[in-house]
Structure formats: C-alpha cells, structure tokens
Amino acid sequence: MTVTAVLIALVLSSALCAVLLALIQRDAANQTVKELAREGRVVAASMNTGRLTDPIPAPDGELLQVADRRGRIIAASPLMQDRARVPIRPPPRDEDRRDGHFCGIDAPGGRCFLVVEYQVGLGAPAKFVYSLAPAPGPLPRPLAASLVLISIPFITGLAGYGTWLAASRTLRPVDGIRRELDEITATDLERRVPVPPRRDEVGLLAESVNATLDRLEQAVARQRGFVSDVSHELRSPLTALRMELELALSAPDEADLPETLQAVLINAERLSAVVDDLLALTRLEADPNFTREPVDLTEITDEEVLRRPRRTQVTVLSEGPVTVHGGRSELARLVTNLLDNADRHAASEVTVILRAEPPDTAVVEVIDDGTGIPPEDRERVFERFARLAEGRHRDAGGTGLGLAIARDIAEAHRGSLILTDRIDGVPGARFVLRLPGG
Question: Is-contact 345 316, C-beta < 8 A?
Fold first, then answer.
C-alpha cells in the first residue's frame, strides 16, 4: 500500500511540478515581453520627436534595431551593430505592434528570441522598431525552479510516510486479531478476538470473527454432546447383547437358544436403527442440496401407511394431491418418522390430514390420541436423543432421532415442523408440517 501511494504521489507531484515550471517559464516570458514593449515605445517616441541616434543608447545591453520598409538598418543598439535586419513581417493592418517567439535571428545571446515590433508611421516612409531578448530557458528563475523540484521528493516522502503510518495504525488491530486466532484451539473456543473501539471495517471484521467463533463453539458443543449421546444410546443395546451372549455361554445347556437369539435380534435391530438414523443425519448435514422434484405428499403418505402394519389404526384424510418440490426419499422419511412416533405413543388411533393453503403452502398434520406433551417440553422432543420425564417419551422402541431428523428435513425444504395441541380439545399430540408448495 505504501509503495503504491509513493508511486502515485511521485507521478502526481512530477506532473504538478512540470505544470508549475511551465507557468514560471510563461510568467518570465510575459515579463520579458513587457520590458521589450517598454523599450520599443521609448525608441518610437524618440523617432517621433526627432531625437533618434545611432547607435541607440542601451546602457543595460538591450538589443534594439530600427529599419525602414526596404530593409535598410537606420539605427541599432551597440550589440546589434552590423547585424542583419530582424526578419519579421510588419504588424497586421490597423495595428502598430507585433510580438512573438522567433528563432534564426542574427543577434547575440542565443538562437531563439522574444521580439516586440512597433511600426512608426504609415506607407512607404514607415519605420519599424525591433526590441528583442533571448527566450527564457526551462529554468528562467533558478530559485523558484529549485524549490519546485525539491518539492517532488518531499511530497513523495510525505505521502509514503503518511500512508505507512495510516496503514500501520489501521492494520494494528488486524495483527492482534491474527495473533489471537493463532492461539485459539479446539480446547479454548471460549476465547474471542479483541474488537477495536472504532466502528470501521476492521471493527466489523472482529465482530464477524467473534460471531463465527460463537457459532463454532456452539457447533463443537453440540458435536460433543451428540457424540456423548450416541455413545450412551449405543452402549445400552451393546450391553444387552453382551449380557445375552455371556449368559448363553455361561450355561449353554440351560440356555433357551430361540429366546436368546430373539433377544439378540431385537438389540441388533435397535443398533441398526440408531446407525441408520445417524447416517441419515450425516447425509442431510453433508449434502443439503439433494435432488429435488415434484412430490405428491398424499401419495407418499398412502405408500408409507400401507408399507407395513402398525399398532394403531391410521386414517389419511386428503381432498386430492398435495404437491411440493423436494427430495422424494427425504420427504418419505419425514412422513415415516412422524407416523412411527405417533404410532408408538397413540392410544388407538392416528389421523393424518393433508391440505393445500393459499397462497402456496402444503400442510400435513399428524394427530394421535395419546397423553400429549406439556407446552414447556414441546421443543425438547425435537432435540437429538431427547428424554422427557413423562413415560410417553421414555423410549418405546425409537432411537430418539426420528423427530430431530424430521425437523431437519423440513428446514432443508425451507419449511417448518411444530408440535401443538389438538384443535378439538381431546388429549393428544398434533404435529404440523408446513412446506412451500410445488
């Protein structure tokens, strides 16, 4: 940043100095022309009064020359004696003066000159007075030019130092943020980077980093809790499996083989269900952009109800197709999890209501006639491996992941899944799923 600022300052200051030098040169030329015009007027006045002498008095070494229309030299200053006439055309008609910058003039002091020409008289007797001086060079005023040239490195250095100072001051908090991030590890995620007092981009960056660390800490905490819960859930069926096998091995002659194998199969199915649900959660979190297509929720619900028998009577109420745009297998798993949960906890009946609500929302209600869930625990049932104090949710064969998976699938489809009271006042649970229509 400092190098860029120095280069820009160098270019701009050089351009500015070039302009200032050009202005100084132009001002010097204007001053010279004014002096030449004054000298020419003095000579013209002496001609009009008949006091013109040859040579023309020039105490300061002025370059003066007087010629007639035929080009003959009438008078000249000492330095212009015996020199050719200044080759300049007469002034334009109705004017008595011409000035300009001319080269190739026979005069001492240089090759190019500033010349002021006056015409005295009219017609053939007219005379022409020339006053000239060497044209100013690139540095006509050395002191002013030196100050201008010195300003280039001064301005460049000042811009570079100011940029370096400002950049260092601005980036100093970034260095503190970097050092703090380097020291943060998975074991101390509660640490946060320092937030500078200024509400600038660096301050906003620090706030964003701290917000990211908040989310990371929460995610790690959830992951650790999840791992702990998974370990606990897997330990129970594994312990039961080990106990059944140890009992059978300890007294093989007394063991009831079919009963032992049945118990082993039940625990193996429990393990398989937990693993299947864990894989479903992993796939959903790893790839939320699954393939989507138009899906009829009424068709999926009918298929899931008929796919296998359940403990209770399941009634599906729908006035026709209810279509959404989503993943077919994911939505089928969502509906299955809701049906399985309702079947485990219903007294005798489960009712599924499907309908479309304007402007473009698909609604699925799964209602059971069980004991219901207290309002303060209705969000907990969607947590992974949640266990409520009530006997209704003391695992009756589920894995503790079904409702969590169902809500994750609903949110992956930009929908919602909530638990509320039945609208008819009868005890029981009512799960309401809302999805954008297809």
Answer: no
- The tens digit of pLDDT for each residue in 59-86 reads 888 899 898 888 888 888 989 888 888 8
Top-level class of domain 201-285: mainly alpha
Residue found by looking up tokens 């619900």 in the block: 301
Q: What are the E-state strand segments in 289-343?
A: 293-296, 313-318, 323-326
User: 410 φ, ψ to 5°?
Assistant: -60, -45
CA distance to 131, 316, 332, 403, per residue, from 303 (Å): 113, 11, 9, 20
- The Cα 373–Cα 336 span in angstroms is 20
**Are 245 and 268 contacting, i.e. CB atoms less than 8 angstroms apart?**
no
What span, in angstroms and rounded, lies between the C-alpha atoms of 88 and 69?
11
Tell me how far apart the alpha carbons of residues 365 and 356 are, in angstroms, rounded to a whole number: 12
User: DSSP labels for 246-280?
Assistant: HHHHHSTTT--HHHHHHHHHHHHHHHHHHHHHHHH
Judge whether residue 397 has pLDDT over 60. Answer: no
Angle between helices 328-345 and 297-307 (to 10 degrees): 50
Residue 63: phi, psi to the nearest 5? -100, 105
d(CA 379, CA 391): 17
Asked whether the predicted pLDDT for residue 400 surpasses 80, the reply is: no
Crossing angle (nearest 10°) for helices 328-345 and 402-412: 140
Q: How far apart are CA 226 and CA 277, in angstroms?
A: 13
**CA-based nearest residue to 284, from 408, 435, 415:** 408
The phi, psi pair for 385, rounded to 5°, reads 60, 30
Question: Which CATH code fits 290-436?
Answer: 3.30.565.10
Domain boundaries, the chain: 2-134, 201-285, 290-436
